[in-house]
Amino acid sequence: MSTDSQHAEGLVCSAKGCRAPAVWAVRWNNPRIHTPERRKVWLACDDHRPHLERHLETRQFWRDTVTVGELTEADG
Predict the structure, then answer these.
(1) CB 16: neighbour CB atoms within 10 A?
(2) Taking the CB of the first residue and of the last residue of the chain, which one, N or C, has fewer CB atoms within 10 A?
(3) The model's pTM
(4) Contacts for 9-17 with beta carbons within 8 Å, 24 or more apart?
């Protein structure tokens, strides 16, 4: 995935109502329905990253967070 400065072109934050460019990829999975290696991705701007991580951590779904430039075809 190509990047333009810190964020990939055209990717926006997943937080409700936010249209800011995505900088972070918050990777998670629900162990009840996903295999351990499966990762779902929520994109985040700098402002919404902590909120999205806390939301997922509370449910024990959060796995890690990387920059959008570190995403690969396997993420999704």
Answers:
(1) 6
(2) C
(3) 0.85
(4) 11/43, 11/68, 12/43, 13/43, 13/44, 13/45, 13/48, 14/42, 14/43, 14/44, 14/48, 14/52, 15/44, 15/45, 15/48, 15/51, 15/52
